[in-house]
Amino acid sequence: MNVLIYLIPVALFLGGLGLAAFLWSLKSGQYEDLDGAANRILIDEEDDEIS
């Protein structure tokens, strides 16, 4: 039972850290262009530098 004194604050800290990272990613625009990466893989760009 004494181990809960250490585990509960650690779990709350890690949960808060994860929430802060998620909110930072929302604020920095990580989820703005969800279709861009999916469409970029389909574009066939030919390299003109190949000899």
Automatic annotation (TrEMBL):
Origin: domain of life: Bacteria
InterPro entries: Cyt_oxidase_maturation_cbb3
UniProt keywords, alphabetically: Membrane, Transmembrane, Transmembrane helix
Segments traversing the membrane: 6-26
Entry keyword annotation includes rRNA-binding: no
One Pfam family cited in the UniProt record for this chain: FixS
Name under which the protein is recorded: Cbb3-type cytochrome oxidase assembly protein CcoS
Provenance organism: Sneathiella chungangensis
